[in-house]
Amino acid sequence: MAIIVALCLTVLLVAAGLVVDFGLVRIDRQVDKSAADSATLAGLHGLNGGDGNAHPYMGVCTAVRYLKENNARFAGINESVGWTDGNDVGTASGCSDSTLRAKTCIPGDPSSWAKFTWNGTWSGMPLVVTIQSGYSLTGSTWSEDTLDASRTDDSDGAQGCDQMAVIVTQSRDPGLGSLATSSDLRTTIRTVGRVEQRPGGAAPALLLLEPHDCPVLGTGSASADTSWIHVYGSLASNGATQAGTIHADSDATGDCTGGSNEQILWGRQSNGIVAYAAPLATNPALPDATQPGSITTVAGADGKATNYIYDGLTNVYASGALGPAAAATATKTAPTGRSAIGRTLVDQRYRSTVRSAMLAADGVFAAGSAGYVTFPPAVDACKPTQANVNALRDPDGTVLDPTSKVWIDCPSPGRFNPTGNLSIPAGTIVINSVVAPDATLSLPDAHHVYVAGQPSKPNAIDLNSSGQFQMNTNGNLSGSSCSVGQNPDKAVLFLKQGSFKEANTANLVRMCRTTVFLMSGQADGCVPTVDGAQPTSSPCTSGLGSGQFTQNGGSIDWTAPDTMDITTDSDGNALPAATAAWSDPNGPEDLALWSESSANNSTTFSMTGGGLFSVRGVFMTPNAVPFQLGGGAFLNLTNAQFIARTIQLNGSGTKIDMRVDPNSAVTLPKLELVGLVR
User: What is the DSSP letter of 176?
Assistant: First the structure.
């Protein structure tokens, strides 16, 4: 009995030791996991610097301080040492170095990430804490990543910049458990959290994508009060308010000297470039003191000298006033710093839809005229008369109507120049030629128009004489101009090869609720395959691309598709119906123009007509350098948003007022918490 009891006691003592020791290890794991979860959530909030971008060093520091202040076992953390970037290259402290704290995460670039490691002790045993942002789940070997629930949430869509990890490794002396093992008992836990960059900030009237050079935005005259661009605050239908906003991505490290004409923002005269405050939602006659105007640059965030950013506070400033009358006595605020915005949010909303729409349009051109109504051989398809059009019949013998499809073949090197005014009442129209009318070409019921252009001709639509081009006007006019407000009717215009050019004071372009896709001579329109591409002078395989928009005379009346009055909730988040409307290839909501082409002179991209000037919608020309606006007149661009590499006002006397409803434009990013994903 004594022998049996002795043997049993040995086994019982070992078992008891293991139970106690592994129970303590389990408690360690639970405490560490709870602390890591809370620290990760705190750190995710710390990533947000208010500019919609992740700031890794700020986020990691916030997580470090949370652990240090809220759990005794981490109280010995020294936040001054242990810092590296994502490549394990040593850096200064992310809690004290202002330059590091201002850095934003660059997707896929570990040198922009932040990592903190502390090797300490707890109860005399090693304790290691590692906190990192960005953090990639790709290639992760943690056992939990093999679980089905984890495998469904392993996104690296932001290439690490949206994620933060807290890893805690703790060792414990085995105690009684040493009867079974002499090794330390060690546990390691990991928590990963995620944020998401979403739209929801203010909608800038001007988003300027040039990353390095100067000037990015310039007025056209140095004479006082003869040329300006003023951006006003707005009050949306859903009660949302926003300040007038301008942002430039340039860091002024390129062709910039800080001298005359070498600033990012070149006002050239008193009140040349001004952004005004948001109206107070409860009393729109008063400014909202919490939302003054906003003019921001990346150079400002990088600490660049002010003479590189703007040419004086008198010429360029943000105001807390609603407009010029009160601005004279209101405080003028210099442009401030903000991280690069880029085109990512525009791409997230529209890019895949635009690219697929252009590819589908290329298929229309390639498929030929089968299934379309065509002119008989006796008719000169390059110069048809109204009688020729009236004689056309659908396959069922009826006259043309909005359900009809018409194919017009005008062989090279001809041009489609109807004899006199011409109206084609079909819904789908393909013109396999250059469109160059000397009179009025009207497509009143057209919802899909395809113009092929010719490789030997620079312009697909060429209005050089007294030609006029009008489409989708039936039911969309208020008086003689395109109506505004919501309407389900919309249209698309595709130009395969060549530019859209209007060059005579007698010309008129009227396109109601129409999105124009300039395909730049390439099947996919040179649209990038990923979001957020950098501006380039060679966006197409052929270089510049041929899809410019040039209006150097005449009148323009152009509105984008507008089927919804309210597209976001009170927090700025997109409504499901709006997401669907933005993704409609038959007329993406609020999108007026998309062209990836670049430019080789200052007038290639321009809207400088001298007559009627009414445009509404998002004008996306990310490689236009510059996009020129002007015409020697006052231009009220309500709900027009321009996204270009640079913008320049043309000549003296160009006075532009802009006011953008965030429900009708692409908004600046904000970071929102997704939560813990591991």
Answer: G
**What is the side-by-side order of every strand in the sheet holding 83-84?**
83-84, 114-122, 125-133, 163-172, 185-199, 669-676
Phi (first) and psi of residue 419, to 5 degrees: -85, 100
User: Which strands, in side-by-side order, build the sheet including 228-232?
Assistant: 332-333, 316-319, 273-275, 228-232, 655-659, 634-638
- Is the confidence at residue 543, as pLDDT, over 80? yes
Q: Which region holds residue 231: left if phi is over 0, alpha if psi is between -120 and 50, else beta?
A: beta
Q: How far apart are CA 624 and CA 548, in angstroms?
A: 8
- Where does the pLDDT of residue 296 fall: very low under 50, low under 70, confident under 90, or very high at 90 and above? very high
The residue among 370, 178, 202 whose CA lies nearest residue 293 is: 202
pTM score, two decimals? 0.82
The C-alpha atoms of residue 618 and residue 380 are separated, in whole angstroms, by 38
Instruction: Report pLDDT digits (tens) over 218-265.
Output: 987 666 667 889 999 998 877 888 899 999 999 999 988 888 778 999
Integer Cα distance of 267 and 566 in angstroms: 34
Give the pLDDT score at 572: 67
Beta bridge partners of residue 399, listed in sequence order: 393
Would you state the torsion angle of the CA atoms of residues 84, 298, 545, 525, taken in this order, to the nearest 10 degrees? 70
Which residues fall within 8 angstroms of residue 638, CB to CB, at 6 or more apart? 616, 658, 659
Which two tokens mark 545?
Answer: 């691309």
Which of 28-37, 57-66, 357-366 shows the lowest per-residue confidence on average (mean pLDDT)?
28-37
3-class state of residue 544 by DSSP: coil
Burial environment of residue 376 by CB neighbours within 10 A (0 to 12, 13 to 18, 19 or more): exposed
Q: Residue 528: is its pLDDT beyond 90?
A: yes
Task: Share the mean pLDDT of the chain.
Answer: 88
Instruction: Give the mean model confidence (pLDDT) for residues 27-52.
Output: 83
DSSP three-state, residue 365: helix
Long-range contacts of 252-258 (CB under 8 A, 24+ apart): 252/212, 252/214, 252/297, 252/299, 252/304, 252/308, 252/309, 253/212, 254/211, 254/212, 254/213, 254/214, 255/212, 255/213, 255/214, 256/212, 256/213, 256/214, 256/308, 257/214, 258/305, 258/307, 258/308
At which residue do the structure tokens 């690069």 appear?
A: 340
pLDDT at position 15, please? 59
Is the omega angle on the peptide bond into residue 259 within 30 degrees of 0, that is, cis?
no
Of 576, 604, 606, 579, residue with least CA distance to 590: 579
- Structure-token pair, residue 128: 């290691």
3-state secondary structure of 388: helix
Task: Say if residues 175 and 39 touch (Cβ distance below 8 Å).
Answer: no
Q: Alpha helix (H) ranges present in 194-343?
A: 298-301, 306-309, 324-327
